[in-house]
């Protein structure tokens, strides 16, 4: 999610890197919840992001 030209993340927004084989089908839409677990690392734009090892859709 691109919030502005200066930043790709902000408080309350998480960047999650999900490998194609872990992506749910169909992909969640607007208003749906998604949870992910994995290691946190620094992304190419300096943001902290999760490299997902587990993904779940719904609450």
3D structure, described in words:
By secondary structure, the chain is mostly beta strands. The chain has one domain. Helix content is 0%, strand content 37%. The chain is built from no helices and three strands. The chain has strands spanning 15-17, 34-42, 48-57. A three-stranded mixed beta sheet has the order 1-3-2, with no helix packed on it. It is globular and about 30 Å long. The relative contact order is 0.31. The model has no long low-confidence stretch (mean pLDDT 79).
Low-confidence stretches: none
Indicate the percent of residues in helices.
Answer: under 10%
Rounded to an integer in angstroms, the radius of gyration calculated over CA atoms is 12 Å
- Quaternary structure type: single chain
* Number of helices, counting only DSSP H or I runs of 4 residues or more: 0
The residue-averaged pLDDT reads 79
Shape: globular
Strand order of the largest sheet: 1-3-2
The total number of structural domains is: 1
Largest sheet: 3 strands, mixed
Order of helix and strand elements from N to C terminus: EEE
Distance between the termini: 21 Å
β-strand percent reads 35-45%
By helix and strand content, what is the structural category?
Answer: mainly beta
- How many DSSP-defined strands? 3
């Amino acid at each position: 999610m691109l919030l502005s030209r200066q930043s790709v993340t902000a408080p309350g927004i998480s960047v999650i890197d999900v490998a194609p084989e872990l992506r749910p089908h169909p992909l969640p839409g607007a208003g749906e919840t998604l949870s992910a677990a994995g290691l946190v690392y620094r992304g190419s734009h300096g943001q902290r992001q999760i490299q997902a090892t587990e993904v779940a859709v719904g609450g």
